[in-house]
Amino acid sequence: MDWTPEKPPTAKxxxxxxxxxxxxxxxxxxxxxPGAKGLARKLGVALMTVQxxxxxxxxxxxxxxxxxxxTYVLDPEKGHDTAQEVALGLRELQRHLGQVTAQLGExxxxxxxxxxxxxxxSVKGE
Length: 126
Prior knowledge:
Layout lengths: L10 H13 L12 H8 L3 H13 L3 E4 L3 E4 L9 H43 L1
């Protein structure tokens, strides 16, 4: 993880990093994620920040916490996607969302430009 002490990561950024690592196969099913306390200390963030990141991963269906033991990448039930497959799907979804967001931004600019041209033409026509 490449965060600087000047700008410690948010829970969203921590979750994104682990999501990416799971998608890349760095955390296979059954592998334990780093302990929340140690990771929080290493990253210079509050324990709650790491816990929230792990909670996001659990909500995505990628990990599960075991009381007193830690947080582990889920080993899928027969017929279900692995955590890596789910993480890859989420990565692809984020990529598509970025493309749609960019296209929406372009359309917004074009509409604003057309409205500006239309109001200029109506002023000339008066």
